[in-house]
Each structure stands twice: as C-alpha cells, then as structure tokens.
Amino acid sequence: MFERFTKDARAVVQGAVECAERAKASTVDAEHLLLALLEREGSRGSFALAALGAGERKESVRQALEDARRRAGLSQAETDALAGLGIDVSEIVARVEEAHGVGAMSGGRTDKGRRPGRPGFGRGAKDVLEKALRVAVARRDRHIGDEHILLALTVRPGVPAEVLADHGVTHESLTRVLGGEGEACA
C-alpha cells in the first residue's frame, strides 16, 4: 500500500513514528498522525488546515490532544457522558496523577515486554491509513496524499476527529476546501 503514498503522505507517516518516539509511546496512534500533519508545510493537507484556520491554532490542537491523552484517550464527548453518570474524569485523573505522577493515565509509558526499536502501528493508526486508501479510491485519485490522511482522520470516530471538529476542521469543510476531485480550490 505504501507505494501508492505521495512524498507528503510518506512524510506524515514517518513524522507520526517520530512523534510516537518522542512521546515514548509503545505504538503509533491516530493522534500521532494528526500531530505529524500539523508539522507539515507546503502540502495539500497543510494548505487545507491553514485554509480552515487550524494552521494558526496548532498549539491549541496539540494541547487538546495532550488533554485527551491525560484522560487516558477519552474524548470530551466520552468525558461528558461519564459526567452524566456522576463520574468526574478530571477528579480521577487528578487522583491517579497525585499517586503515580503526571501523565500516568496517558499510556505513554513503555511496556516492559516491548521490543527495543521503533514503535509499531496501533489499530487506530492502521484504521486511518486504510481509510485514507478508501478515501483516495472514492475520490478517484491514483495516489494517497496527506490530504487523504487528514480526511480519514475526520471520519473516524475518536479524539482526533473531535479535536479537529472543535477547531473547525470537519469532513465537509475539508471536502469544500479540497474540491471534488481532490484539487485544491483557489
């Protein structure tokens, strides 16, 4: 499948691996793909993010992802649903971090049984990359670009889609910016 990836899409995948390594994560997750997309410049995906205003709010997106990671990957919608049941996720996070240190619920700690080397791809990242292929095929594009990865992140339920939507980046808005055949609108 990677032979169909453009240079920009390959750079996003490589950047996601580097983001996971910096975070000492045991796997590359969908959030790492989004972080890598935020670091890109001069690509179709970065153009789309900038056109929708997320380009100037990169730090806000990063902070929202970090907040979700501290909540053990729970989205804000999941946190709100638990609050409706009387469960205060913020209080649980505070107690766990008081006992075990900041970020204890983030899952970023390395596993004892993990092999040394690069982190593998988690189910979420694999799902996004597979969805990017389906998006490219549906748009009749020959290659998978970073814009397809971005589109895939917006349609897969979870923290990245929620964070993007909170910053004005939805599948519908991306489709408008990128145009019908994958060409960016001027």
TrEMBL record:
Residues annotated as domain Clp R: 2-186
Segments of this protein annotated with the region Disordered: 103-123
GO biological process terms, semicolon-separated: proteolysis
Source taxon at top rank: Bacteria
Parts of the chain that traverse the membrane: none
Keyword Hydrolase applies: yes
Keywords in alphabetical order: Hydrolase, Protease, Repeat
GO molecular function terms listed in the Swiss-Prot or TrEMBL record: peptidase activity
Pfam families for the chain: Clp_N
Protein's name according to its UniProt entry: Clp protease N-terminal domain-containing protein
Origin species: Streptomyces viridiviolaceus
